[in-house]
Amino acid sequence: MDPITHAASGAVALLALPRRPLTAWGLPLAALVTASPDLDVLFCHTPLEFLLIHRGISHSFAAIPVFGLLLALCCWPLWRAATPGRWSFGRVWLLCCGLLLLHIWLDVVTTYGTMVFLPFSHYRVRLNSVYIIDLLLTVPLLWAVWRWRARRGLILLTLAWIFIYPGSGIGINAWHTAQARERFAEEGRDVSRLHVLPDAFAPLFWRVIFEEGDTVRSQSLNALGEPRAPEDIHPATPLALVGATSRESVACDTYFQFAMLPVMDALRPEDEPPLIKEGSHRGALFYDLRFGSGLAFVRRLLAMRPNADIPFQLMLVLDEGADAGAPARAAGQEWADARLAELRLRFSDSGRDSHWHAPVPPTPPTFWQWLVGLR
């Protein structure tokens, strides 16, 4: 979820309380505490660090008491003796913990994935209920903070909206998922993995992405879960290649755990390194369809963003032993013998690019790396 929505949700949560410290610092501090977990991006200097750290330990349940304590210390105006109606330090700590939980809730309902079980598991929770920017969620929060500060009944309704709106999206998603599975079964199609995702202006628009044979397909859906456009078809990433490259590279292992039904394509000419230009190796590009849109005007808007490109790209150079004569179409057991020569992670929106480099194999993490979720 975007930082504005996080900050506004924290301000609404504080306004909903029956009694609070009488200080002008209250709302700004609540907003900053709720948005603070996303400061983890300040520690992400490479694409791999971005995958490992963003929405990582700062968003985990186990770390909430510790981060809540640090944030409570920063919220000194709420518990200092000179503040009228001041709270005890313990109560401020509980508030900070609650605001961190609110942040996690608004992240897990999106499609990105949040590692809430660190350091015990890197599993990413995605409830696929709300688009990454959702005006139907954000605008009521901003309006409440601006116009309804003194109207606690309306503030309470707005606070409830933070849970009711994404919660209803979870239910709608489950309904569309069941409909899609039933439709494909009636058509006699062999669909193995399927995900329904919110599109911009959900719940009016949705998308379904699914794996069928050696292809990954996506289709735009309307509010009733009915197809509203033809399917887009892309080559699927062979599971044997995922396994082979993940054993050779910690970056590949991390990327493929992050990706949802990644597709495989040929490298663009401008991205080819010397090894490919010399003709001794073959390249492949991997990306994730979940960050697209089935709405033409939304795609045009996305194309206008700075550094607009395919989000979260993984590029690989494979030697000839991988039988990569047609990497965009290849599938099967032959990929189990793939040998990785070079790789590159490029995240256009964040400006992070690892550039071409040799693979670094996965190694057991140290205790401190394990504690903060780094591999």
How are the strands of the largest sheet arranged?
Answer: 5-6-7-8-9
Radius of gyration, in angstroms, nearest whole number: 23 Å
Helix content percent band:
25-40%
Separation of the first and last Cα atoms: 25 Å
Provide the structure class.
Answer: alpha+beta
Please summarize the sheet with the most strands.
5 strands, antiparallel
Share of residues in strands: 5-15%
| Arithmetic mean pLDDT | 91
- Please report the total strand number as a whole number: 9
Shape: globular
Count of separate DSSP helical elements:
13
Which regions are unreliable across 5 or more consecutive residues at pLDDT < 50?
A: 322-333
- Name the helix and strand elements from N-terminus to C-terminus, one letter apiece: HHHHHHHHEEEEHHEHEHEEEH
Q: Could you explain how this protein is built, in words?
A:
This protein has 375 residues and is α+β, with helices and mostly antiparallel strands. The protein is 40% helix and 14% strand. The chain contains 13 helices and nine strands. The chain has helices at 3-15, 26-35, 47-53, 64-74, 76-79, 89-108, 135-147, 152-186, 239-248, 250-258, 274-277, 296-303, 367-371, and strands spanning 191-198, 206-212, 215-221, 232-235, 263-265, 281-287, 313-319, 340-347, 352-353. The strands form two sheets. It has a five-stranded antiparallel beta sheet with strand order 5-6-7-8-9. β2 and β3 (215-221) form a beta hairpin.
